[in-house]
From TrEMBL:
<feature type="domain" description="4Fe-4S ferredoxin-type">
    <location>
        <begin position="60"/>
        <end position="90"/>
    </location>
</feature>
<dbReference type="GO" id="GO:0046872">
    <property type="term" value="F:metal ion binding"/>
</dbReference>
<keyword id="KW-0479">Metal-binding</keyword>
<feature type="domain" description="4Fe-4S ferredoxin-type">
    <location>
        <begin position="4"/>
        <end position="32"/>
    </location>
</feature>
<dbReference type="InterPro" id="IPR050954">
    <property type="entry name" value="ET_IronSulfur_Cluster-Binding"/>
</dbReference>
<protein>
    <submittedName>
        <fullName>Dimethyl sulfoxide reductase subunit B</fullName>
    </submittedName>
</protein>
<dbReference type="InterPro" id="IPR017896">
    <property type="entry name" value="4Fe4S_Fe-S-bd"/>
</dbReference>
<keyword id="KW-0004">4Fe-4S</keyword>
<keyword id="KW-0408">Iron</keyword>
<dbReference type="GO" id="GO:0051539">
    <property type="term" value="F:4 iron, 4 sulfur cluster binding"/>
</dbReference>
<dbReference type="InterPro" id="IPR017900">
    <property type="entry name" value="4Fe4S_Fe_S_CS"/>
</dbReference>
<feature type="domain" description="4Fe-4S ferredoxin-type">
    <location>
        <begin position="92"/>
        <end position="121"/>
    </location>
</feature>
<keyword id="KW-0411">Iron-sulfur</keyword>
<dbReference type="Pfam" id="PF13247">
    <property type="entry name" value="Fer4_11"/>
</dbReference>
<keyword id="KW-0249">Electron transport</keyword>
<keyword id="KW-0813">Transport</keyword>
<keyword id="KW-0677">Repeat</keyword>
């Protein structure tokens, strides 16, 4: 089996959300559903001086563009009660069979990355399928093509590791690795380790 994966260069991502918008427009997703989300993680403070000016005190910030990670041990697949969540045996892509999905949200609860969202109108779960239709014809995911900074890449995991190294998936605001995510993340220079970060996600709720 060829396991496909994403690569994200955190040092190149500017948080422009072109990847997110390109995906949403291509698949005409409802207003409350996203396949890819761009997290803004920030920390530090601006301290007042005696002269009335403000100076940075450990101020930092970076962005992480995140979709489904098509995990090796996908919690959504393992916990789906109807078998709607499938992992393709040839590509490793995790996709949703809407014919049998009952919208119970078990996949959303089980996924540490909260990749699935509920489609209120249709009554089933929605999730990135790595543009498997495009991939099947030799193409790349829409988000990768759309990224103006070339912060995103896609391909067989082994090839991405050869190109970029193993990376580090355990950076804030992402959780510790429990499912074998197929995201090769090259962290931003200011990235903080999962669970010990001093910052927070500053996105508006409607952005997530």
């Amino acid at each position: 089996m060829t396991q496909y994966a994403f690569h994200l260069d955190g040092g190149k991502c500017t948080g422009c959300k072109t990847c997110q918008v390109a995906c949403k427009e291509t698949y005409r997703l409802p207003a409350t559903n996203l396949y890819r989300k761009v997290y803004s993680y920030q920390g530090g403070s601006w301290d007042a001086t005696a002269a009335g000016h403000y100076v940075p005190n450990g101020v930092f910030g970076y962005f992480i563009s995140l979709a489904c990670n098509h995990c090796t041990n996908a919690a959504c697949v393992e916990n789906c009660p109807t078998g709607a969540m499938q992992k393709d045996p040839d590509t490793g892509i995790v996709w949703t069979d809407h014919e049998v999905c009952i919208g119970c949200k078990t996949c959303q609860t089980a996924c540490p990355y909260k990749a699935s969202t509920f489609n209120e109108e249709e009554g089933y779960m929605l999730k990135c399928d790595m543009c498997r239709g495009e991939v099947a014809t030799g193409g790349k995911p829409i988000c990768v093509i759309g990224c103006p900074m070339r912060a995103l890449d896609f391909g067989p995991r082994e090839e991405l590791v050869e190109r970029y190294g193993e990376g580090d998936i355990e950076v804030e605001p992402l959780p510790q690795d429990t499912t074998g995510p197929n995201l090769i993340l090259t962290p931003h220079r200011n990235a903080q380790k999962s669970g010990v970060g001093t910052g927070s996600v500053v996105n508006l709720q409607e952005e997530l």
